[in-house]
Amino acid sequence: MIKEKIYTLGQLGKKFFQHIANHGIRSASLKTLSFVQTRLRIARHIPRPEGLDPREWDIPREEQNSLAPPPGPVKLLAYYLPQFHPIPENDRWWGEGFTEWTNVTKATPLYPGHNQPDLPGPLGFYDLRVQEVMRRQVAMAKHHGIYGFCFHYYWFSGRRLLERPLEGYLNDPNCDLPFCLNWANENWSRRWDGKDQEILIQQVHSPEDDRSIMQDLLRYFSDPRYIRLDGRPLFLVYHAKLLPDMKATLERWRQYCEELGELPPYFVMVQSFDNWDPRQYDFDAAAQFPPHLSHKPEGYKHTSIQGISSDFTGTVVAYEEMYKQTLAGLNAPFPLFPCVCPGWDNTPRRGNNAFIYAGATPAKYEQWLEQACSHALKTLPEDQAFVFINAWNEWAEGAHLEPSQRYGYAFLNATSRVLTSTSAAGRAILDPSLRLRLLVVSHDAARAGAQILLLEHLRWLTRHAAVDIYLILLQDGPLLSDFKSICPVLICAPEHIQTNTVREFCGKIDLILGNTAVVASAYDVLSTFDVPIVTYVHELEQSLQKFAGQVTLEKMCHHTNHYVAASESIRRNLVSRHNISPEIVQTIHASITPPSIHPSPRLREAQRQTLELPQNIQIVLGCGSRDWRKGVDIFVEVARRVLKNPDCPPTIFIWIGGGDDPSITSPQMLVKRYGLDTQVLFLGEQSFPQPYFQTADIFLLPSREDPFPLVCLEAAACKMPIVCFDDVGDMPGFVSLGGGFVVPRENVEAMAERVLLLLISPDLRSKLGQKAFDNFHSMHTTDIAAPFLLALCREKAGKPAPVSVIVPNYNYANYLERRLASIFEQSFRDIEVIVLDDASTDQSLARIARWQQRTNLQLVKNTSNSGNVFVQWRKGLELAKGEFIWIAEADDDATPSFLGALLAACSRPGVVMAYSIPQVIDGKDRLVRDFNYRKNYLTYAARDRWTHNYEISGLREIREVLAIANCLPNVSAVVFRKPDSALFEDCLAYRCSGDWFFYLRLAALGRVAYVHGDLAFHRRHDQSVIGKDQQAKRHILRQEMEQIHHLAQNLFGPLSKETLDRMQTFRESLDQ
After folding, report:
1. Phi/psi at 301 (5° precision)
2. What confidence score (pLDDT) does residue 30 get?
3. Which residue among 267, 498, 645, 847 has its CA within the 20 to 30 Å range from the CA of 947?
4. Rounded to whole angstroms, how far apart are CA atoms 227 and 152?
5. pLDDT tens-place string over residues 702-717
6. Phi, psi (rounded to 5 degrees) for 436
7. What is the pLDDT of residue 676?
8. Which residues, including other chains, have CB under 8 Å from residue 289's CB and lie 6 or more apart?
9. What is the pLDDT of residue 505?
10. What dihedral do alpha carbons 943, 946, 949, 952 form, nearest 10°?
């Protein structure tokens, strides 16, 4: 064994300087170089020190989650590399046919368990000249919640490289994912084989080039898919310092856009290399780009890997080190978009000289992404909460979300989980006493109507409400993984359910929700929990008898405290056939979550192209299990009659769904008998049937019994008219509102006549489809139905909603629609809404009535005007049942994230009040740019205070600012804990300043939180309280201000001299 003395860097330096003293610097340099080279050769034979253990990074392969995450406030943008097709330049530099895959496939492992070569999964070794590849990438990205791609854009003084994929994307309407561009403006060199000094294409940029590149970019900016911030196209520059004068370039770009009448781009500097502060060039913002660490020049802490090759001369950094240091860099004094990297290992490019960020796992990536998303939501405006991911497909650098052969969809699934969690505003309140604990029971996880409806409800509750859900499945099924992504799941057959097992699973619960009558087979055991049981019934009588049976139905009737009926016909059946009191049965309309893509002729054309369906034919669609109840045999009979009619245009009938029912003639046999093999198609079960709905023209429902089929709502959401039978459930009631035709039960001739009429009448088809679409959105979305279920569960559990929203109104009919919409669009929806109308004489009551039809809004009307808004506030507080109060004045507005953001602060221990500074808007929803609370009014109290989130003791807030001026200028921008009613009594003595005095008294009871961001909008207009009688109110306000200043000194003093001086200055301002 070779033994050599190991020298530290300090010892080596000492020997170097000693040699200089004796022999001179040249001799010392040569001697030291020889010494180091010798030791490096010997070091290859010396065992490596202990390092990271690769066995800890074993990642199980994952299949794709079947449901996409719900839309939320965070927008993920994945960098996209277009180097997966041959180009002449790469052929010349690297060999004919070179693409990124060339490097990927030649990689070899450097340590045991090293995932090299890292090979692609279902997308394969794709070629981006094949447009179908990008369509599949778009579908995959959308399914996992990716908001858009950020394409690397290569431009060298008028010369473009790798432009073909981007041009293909631009010209393909099927690629409907938003996108933006990142100018990858670095030199191209031979860095892949270690020869960085050899430049292949140099980035030589002149002032004349600025106009040329902007001319080219404007083609992309004009595309409707291009991502914009405040109307401005988002454009990134990768290496700002490489340009001769980056600041001048940005200015020239802005000037050129102004000349053309175009909005200038929203310029973002990528934090690559040592590009850190975007302000030095006048960028609008910066974006992180890990593994680059521009904020920390000393870089990362290096490590090693156990068993790594002795020939390895590269660099190893722990993945945790990369993400922790990148997160630390988010604390910046300028707008900064976070970026997350799923991994980094450029062994395919650099071999033994690779940079390896070792130990990346989906769990670590998920943790990083979660924190990055949280930071974006806290620091960026709601419509700009972008988080970048590096990258979608950097395969040769080990940074890709695309599924691989080894790990499958693990990283994409982790992305979906984070988006689902991030969009869960219900986590804003963590106090267990306020959260509703639900035990939900479903008979299985089949891909059927009742289970899909339950899944959508649970997802909504998790996202929007302070609810903890535990799910028992009596059997599993294909939706199991989707349920598991929402809540804990226990699979247990009813005969094996035991009280102890369930208690260990869910602990203490407030209510049991049974989904379908079948689950009542478990009620004997579950009833021992001694909590209310609510049964959600989806079945009509025939299905009740067939699937539940008499014994189970008796258990249901014995144990159920309240029923939810999925339709009116189900409610009537429960009352008439099972002697259930009407008072304990509530109908909640069947619902689905609307598709994220709006139906359009362009979408229809694109989907037909994807599904390889002809563009010039009509499609009649049916969907359901192939059994007697769904009427699949009738579907064939209708098709035969329609298709044999000489007036029928080219048409095909498509049925989606599987199964076999011996009680009816086989539909396939009927098709063969009638010679319709090419015109009536049975496609079987489809995991993602939505594309067929988006491409069809008419939806045919031939059911003999169907309470309220969700497939009809899917059709309505895609603007398809519906044809169905009468007296088979509640769908005829929906269709008869104008969304299609209802024909007599099992009248095949009449059904065929109506289908034919729609086929030959495109204008009628379009009109009825639009009506179906409107009816669906008015009553049958999850966003409308789920709050009714939530309110019912809270009522029966005796746990009121944690937030009471009080809406005082007097003659604000013009603004009520927008105000109520802003409340019911909040990401946090676990609320009760109380509208207090103070004897309005305009159309307010009519506007409120429309909202009462589709929400659980409570209206309280005064017969005469109270004369004081604070009297209305007091009434609202007396009626409120929630722990937290939001007084949302009827003429104001808020962003969807307002309530969730303020609740997250206000619900922290000891905090009694949270507030934000609103922007000011006028009567036409326009920002009032010449008035800003922070720059105008609030400067009397402090300068530069309200620039970031903070939490502070209430007494300190009072003594520093709140005693000087009302720093909460608009109650609509405040959330507070419900106080004792006595606290509000003294406020009624004030005409203008009752709110200010109330805040002072409340703040003294605990801590106060300020939430930064443009979350609320205070409307100032001629009819507002502020707008009326300005001169008279100024006089009253001056008097009341002096009283409050005096009280503040007595109650909360002693006050500092600075505070007293600011009080005086503020009072004097009203005398001017």
Report:
1. -80, 130
2. 46
3. 267
4. 15
5. 999 888 899 999 999 9
6. -90, 125
7. 94
8. 238, 270, 271, 272, 339, 388, 390
9. 96
10. 70
Cα(603)–Cα(560) distance, integer angstroms: 46
Q: Is cis: bond before 391, omega within 30 of 0?
A: yes
Here the tokens at position 883 are 């722990």
* CA within 13 Å, CB half, 645: 20
237 DSSP β-pair partners: 183, 269
> Backbone phi, then psi, for 683, in 5-degree steps?
-95, -5
Q: Which distant-in-sequence residues (6+ apart) come within 8 Å of 605 by Cβ?
A: 173, 615
Among residues 833, 856, 859, 834, the alpha carbon closest in space to that of 846 is found at 859
Tokens of 110: 């450097």
DSSP character for 959?
I
Contact at 8 Å (CB) between 725 and 745? yes
Report the distance separating Cα 801 and Cα 436, nearest Å.
9
HEC letters along 793-817:
HHHHHCCCCCEEEEEEECCCHHHHH
pLDDT of residue 919: 87
The DSSP letter of residue 274 is T
Torsion of CA 740, 746, 748, 754, to 10 degrees: -10
Q: What is the mean pLDDT of the chain?
A: 88
What does the block give as tokens for 757?
A: 């009429």
Helix (H) or strand (E) holding 682: strand 680-684
Residues 902, 914 contacting (CB under 8 angstroms): yes
Q: What is the pLDDT of residue 856?
A: 86
* pLDDT of the residue at 48: 45
Q: Could you tell me the two tokens for 766?
A: 């379009």
Instruction: Please give the Cα distance from 164 to 155 (Å, whole number).
Output: 13
The answer to whether 336 and 290 are in contact (CB under 8 A) is: no
Q: Kind and range of the H or E element at 150?
A: strand 146-156
How is residue 470 written in tokens?
Answer: 């535990």
Calculate the dihedral angle through the C-alpha atoms of 441, 443, 444, 450, rounding to the nearest 10 degrees. Answer: -90
Q: Of 216, 321, 71, 111, nearest to 827 (Cα)?
A: 71
Give the pLDDT of residue 34.
Answer: 45
Query: DSSP assignment, residue 427?
Result: G
Note the residue count of the chain: 1072
Residue 758, CB-side half-sphere exposure with 13 Å CA sphere: 28
List pLDDT tens digits, range 955-1006.
999 999 999 999 999 999 999 999 987 888 888 888 888 899 999 999 999 9
Whether the upstream peptide bond of residue 297 has omega within 30° of 0, thus cis, is no
Token reading at 447: 């891909």
SS3 645: coil
Over the stretch 242-297, which tens digit does the pLDDT of each residue have? 999 999 999 999 999 999 999 999 999 999 998 999 989 999 999 999 999 887 77
Backbone angles phi, psi at 359, to 5 degrees: 95, 20
DSSP class of 7:
P
> Residue 1: which residues within 8 A CB-CB, separation 6 or more?
none
* Angle 501-502-504 from CA coordinates, rounded to 5°: 65
- 309, 351 contact by CB (below 8 A): no
**Residue pair 396/51 in contact by the 8 Å Cβ criterion:** no
Burial of 311 (0-12, 13-18, 19+ CB in 10 A): exposed
For residue 576, give every residue at least 6 positions away whose Cβ sits within 8 Å of its Cβ, in sequence order, or none.
none
Q: Using an 8 Å Cβ cutoff, are 877 and 885 in contact?
A: yes
**Measured in whole angstroms, how far is the alpha carbon of residue 38 from the centre of its chain?**
57
CA 29/CA 32 separation, integer angstroms: 5
Q: Which stretches in the chain have pLDDT values below 70?
A: 1-50, 65-68, 70-71, 190-197, 378, 381-382, 420-424, 596-598, 602-603, 606, 610, 1013, 1022-1032, 1072
DSSP-assigned letter for residue 545? I
Burial class (CB in 10 A: 0-12, 13-18, 19+), 1039: middle
The residue behind tokens 């990346």 is 360
Handedness of CA 981, 982, 987, 988 (dihedral sign): positive
